[in-house]
Amino acid sequence: MTPQPATSAAAAGSAPASTKSTTSIGITMNGTSLQAEWSLRDLVHQCNNVPSSLESWITQLNAPLNLCPTDVGHAFLTVDNVRVGLLTPPVAMALLEHPHAFERVSQTQVALKRPAVDASASVHADPDARVELTRSQWIAEIVEQWRTFNDGTQLRFEALMGWRDELYPVYGKGGSLAFTVERAASGLLGVRTYGCHMTAYTLPPGTAHPHSNLHLWLARRSLTKPTFPGQLDNTAAGGLPVTRSSTGQPVFQRPFECMVREAHEEASISESVARSGIVAAGAVSYYQRQEHLPSLGGIAGPETQYVFDLQVDEAFAPEVNDGEVHGFMKVRVDEAMQLLKSGQFKPNCAVVLIDFLVRHGYITTDNEPDYLEIVHGCHRPLEWEFPGPRWSLLKD
């Protein structure tokens, strides 16, 4: 796609309206009428709306199903007795059609089996690595069958329409790789996924107190994106995939490397600028029930987004470099807050921006009554529910 010039904040009103139905309050930004209807607490809650007790929640979901003792309902997906995902009944039953790979442990647990491995195999001397590769192959074969369901005339699950030919990692005990799965199928398995988001901002030279001077660069998503078309996004963002070597070994992309790549692909930021300027700023985690995207098929999507900041000078302007982004706009903090409250952001991008504004001192205990709930909601400790990677111990 031909690079497009950055747009002004006045273009903010051109995004599709939020589908949330509430009484709204009209506000104006640079002559553009916006609809204020979301609190910051609302925005965090829409991304972190799964109850803290997963067992009680699963029981509540299964209660109306009148399950027989041998049935399976909404269920945890486990690997070596560690929870790695949540399944809806149709997906759980579809997995159990492959008894070589999956077994029903109870009404609320489906386990991915541990394969027997050939101790004499020359590829992957590490038995655990061979187990992971076999499990990943099982998953790939099953998902491919779902994709070519009914002699290839239809998809078994609508979520697979978004097939990416990209693998997402799923981690198990001790933060080790449990298996990989096609990105489009990750929502079906309800596994924890990972991404990287960057916020570029500018401060005028010599600024003593930045609160009235900081500007943010926001991206507007492509109008043809299958999810959240035309909504606002962070400056650059992307999923965190894993690839395979010629021998099947996993090759991990570290969060910083992912962010450098996405900054170039989406915002035309050179590698030298990215590597010298991008600063790791932590992570946000949340657990989202995907009622707004029923086609994904999963009960809920636990996600972790590694967040990065990039301070740029006033002459900087990102440029569109692929089909993911429609354009960019530069806004003041108060304008960004108005855009947040008018529901114009992709939900998880709103959480990333809120986290940025907390870290930089714009959302405080003095101006936000729900401050603690907002901060905690941006950082749900998912390791208590599903394990994540331990990057310093992972080997490519």
From TrEMBL:
One Pfam family of this protein, by short name? Answer: DUF4743
Regions annotated as coiled coil: none
Taxonomically, the superkingdom here is Eukaryota
Q: Which GO terms describe its molecular function?
A: 8-oxo-dGDP phosphatase activity
Region of interest (Disordered), ranges: 1-25
Alphabetical list of InterPro entries matching this protein: DUF4743 (IPR031804), NUDIX_hydrolase-like_dom_sf (IPR015797), NUDIX_hydrolase_dom (IPR000086)
Start and end residues of each Nudix hydrolase domain: 181-353
Q: Which PROSITE patterns match?
A: NUDIX
Known CDD domains for this protein? NUDIX_Tnr3_like
Task: List, as start-end ranges, the regions of compositional bias called Low complexity.
Answer: 1-24
In terms of PANTHER family, this protein maps to: THIAMIN PYROPHOSPHOKINASE, THIAMIN PYROPHOSPHOKINASE 1
Any idea what this protein is called? Nudix hydrolase domain-containing protein
**Which organism was this protein described from?**
Catenaria anguillulae PL171
